[in-house]
């Protein structure tokens, strides 16, 4: 199995490190043709506006969307969640528009408001795992088929819909591998 990590900006290497710890082959995705070589794709955290502009400039937006709609497993962390969302609060347009969620940018404040907490998330881990929030979005609306995996203070911070997984927080910034294992299990089902 080979997993792709979108390599345009953001937390690329942290995801790669976690995948390598799980003995998974990784491909840094920079062009559309590489999408045919992978079993799943991670959209890392970073600056969603910047990543969105680069996706359009490099003609990656539509090919990624097409592969997701065909069933390729995808996981968006933080900015990646924003890229997947069908709607973004107070914005007329969104990016990939594949996940039936509406997100609110920077729901947890600025960089200075970053924090770490722990939560037990059913289906992901039997123990509490670290959740690291950095200028994190939150899901403010979900469609009928979207499953809420985690809430924090009544805010939705992890969701799954079919072949798509999205987290407001950054599992790749902790030493915990449980979310990466969960995503790999989604990729094996494909």
UniProtKB/TrEMBL annotation:
What Enzyme Commission number(s) appear in the record?
4.3.3.6, 3.5.1.2
Signal among keywords: no
Q: Which SUPFAM superfamilies match?
A: Class I glutamine amidotransferase-like
Which residues of this UniProt protein bind L-glutamine? 46-48, 105, 134-135
Task: Name the catalytic site residues.
Answer: 78, 170, 172
Q: In which pathway does it act?
A: Cofactor biosynthesis; pyridoxal 5'-phosphate biosynthesis
Give the matching PROSITE patterns.
GATASE_TYPE_1 (PS51273), PDXT_SNO_1 (PS01236), PDXT_SNO_2 (PS51130)
Report if keyword Membrane is assigned: no
For this UniProt record, the keywords arranged alphabetically read as follows: Glutamine amidotransferase, Hydrolase, Lyase, Pyridoxal phosphate
The protein's matches in Pfam families, at most eight in alphabetical order, are given as:
SNO
Which residue spans traverse the membrane? none
Q: Which reaction does it catalyse?
A: aldehydo-D-ribose 5-phosphate + D-glyceraldehyde 3-phosphate + L-glutamine = pyridoxal 5'-phosphate + L-glutamate + phosphate + 3 H2O + H(+); L-glutamine + H2O = L-glutamate + NH4(+)
Q: Which domain of life is it from?
A: Bacteria
The protein's matches in InterPro entries, at most eight in alphabetical order, are given as: Class_I_gatase-like (IPR029062), PdxT/SNO (IPR002161), PdxT/SNO_CS (IPR021196)
Q: Per its database record, what is this protein's job?
A: Catalyzes the hydrolysis of glutamine to glutamate and ammonia as part of the biosynthesis of pyridoxal 5'-phosphate. The resulting ammonia molecule is channeled to the active site of PdxS.
So what family is this one in? Belongs to the glutaminase PdxT/SNO family.
How does this polypeptide assemble, per the annotation? In the presence of PdxS, forms a dodecamer of heterodimers. Only shows activity in the heterodimer.
The protein's name is Pyridoxal 5'-phosphate synthase subunit PdxT
Native species: Clostridium oceanicum
């Amino acid at each position: 199995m080979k997993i792709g990590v979108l390599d345009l900006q953001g937390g690329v290497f942290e995801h790669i490190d976690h995948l390598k710890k799980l003995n998974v082959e990784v491909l840094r995705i920079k062009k559309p043709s590489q999408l045919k070589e992978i079993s799943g794709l991670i959209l890392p955290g970073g600056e969603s506006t910047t990543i969105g502009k680069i996706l359009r400039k490099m003609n990656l937006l539509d090919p990624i969307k097409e592969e997701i709609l065909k069933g390729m497993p995808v996981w968006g962390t933080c900015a990646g969640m924003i890229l997947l969302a069908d709607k973004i609060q107070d914005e007329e347009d969104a990016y990939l528009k594949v996940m039936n969620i509406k997100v609110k940018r920077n729901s947890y404040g600025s960089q200075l408001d970053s924090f770490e907490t722990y939560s037990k998330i059913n289906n992901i881990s039997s123990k509490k795992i670290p959740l690291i929030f950095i200028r994190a979005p939150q899901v403010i609306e979900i469609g009928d088929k979207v499953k809420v995996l985690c809430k924090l203070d009544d805010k939705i911070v992890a969701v799954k819909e079919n072949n798509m997984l999205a987290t407001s927080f950054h599992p790749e910034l902790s030493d915990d591998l449980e979310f990466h294992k969960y995503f790999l299990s989604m990729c094996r089902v494909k």
